[in-house]
Design a protein that fits this description.
- By secondary structure, the chain is α/β, with parallel strands linked by helices.
- It folds into three domains: 49 residues; 129 residues, 3-Layer(aba) Sandwich (Rossmann fold); 100 residues, 3-Layer(aba) Sandwich (Rossmann fold).
- 45% of the residues lie in helices and 18% in strands.
- The strands form two sheets. It has a seven-stranded mixed beta sheet with strand order 7-6-8-9-10-11-12, sandwiched between helices.
- It is elongated.
- The two termini are 50 Å apart.
Length: 331
Amino acid sequence: MLSSRRGIVRRWAGIPALRPMASGRRRKCLALVMVVAIIGLGMGRAFSESLPMQAAVLISRNIRPYIEAADGAIAAFKGSEFGVETFLLDRMKGGAAETLAASIRQGAYDLVLSVGPEASSLAWSHSPAQVCPIIYTMVLNPSRLAGAPREPCGISLGIPIEVQLQTIARTLPSVRRIGLMFDPENNAAFYGDAERMAAEAGISVVPVRVSSRKEIARALAANWQRIDGLWLIPDRTVISESIVQYIVKQGLLNDTPVVGYNRFFYESGAAVSFVLDYTEIGAQAGRLALSAAARGECAAGGPAFQTWINARVVEKLGIPSAAGGGSVILK
């Protein structure tokens, strides 16, 4: 632990015990020892202060998006005063995770960066006093995790609603009534915010509510004539590859563009897809962590992403589209 290493350095600089000797000789030796001790204390402090600050990068699972994000974060630390230790939680056995949590709680690290919800929960739930800055990334709803602070600091996977609406309006200017498919149990708040913000983008949001996967076909059939586009967001009820492919196919059959949120949507035929850049998201979190350590202040931020327009699908649907803005990539 960093605190232990610094403690050892300070103990090394202590004044050694003196043996009994003649008074004159004792005074001379005492003066010499004091000089050496003062020099030693100075050297000890200098050596202690020269020790690198230590950052722990906790990774929830060994999967590609998390590893790419961790790589981006570690790259952001290069050239800084921080040394980095990485921990793959799904590779830890026995009580290793609990031991790691205890070391965080005891101040072994000056900074913790957590990648994924499991890593974030471990860091937060075991460090209620927040003994060091804890920065999260690769988490969709950080405030819902166990132990999360009221205003957690990090980079969320959730693209801000207003940014999504503005991007939809820019890339699909003919869409004025966008259907939002969601389960009210999971995303009622998202719909409420989207409805409130839509007017600024010149769009109205039409709710397409489903409480189970069995309701999806009926809900779509009831709403195709009411909407110019369909907007899909991360939702436990709607999320599966087969459901995405079904919805996109139905959109094409009903001449309605679908807006999705990752590369799979684009490959399945969505007209517009928000594609996250996991390496850059990790780099964002790394830079935010360094800033938090330096300034003691931090706030949540949105993820780096690109907007992919499927030109083939847009042309097939016969709808106008725009590719303005540097973040838009035509595919």
